[in-house]
Amino acid sequence: MVRTQIYLTEEQREELAVIAKSSGKKPSEIIREEIERFIGESGSRHRESVLREAAGIWKNRDDLPDFRSVRAEWDREQL
Fold this sequence. Notes:
The chain is mostly helical. The chain has a domain at 1-55. Helix content is 68%, strand content 0%. The chain contains 3 helices and no strands. It is elongated, with a radius of gyration of 25 Å.
């Protein structure tokens, strides 16, 4: 682990201390867990956003082959 120093408001520090005491964990554990959760959620949201942006990018293109017939041709070749 790498030691990192952060600044909290007095209210944040007090609330963190209450949460830590009630959960039986150290404040540093809670901070690490929440950062991990945030990173996981942010990564998922980013992937979903990229997929949403990419959806339909080939819609209404007339310069692409008919993929159904290409796929059918491939399937016949594999038999």
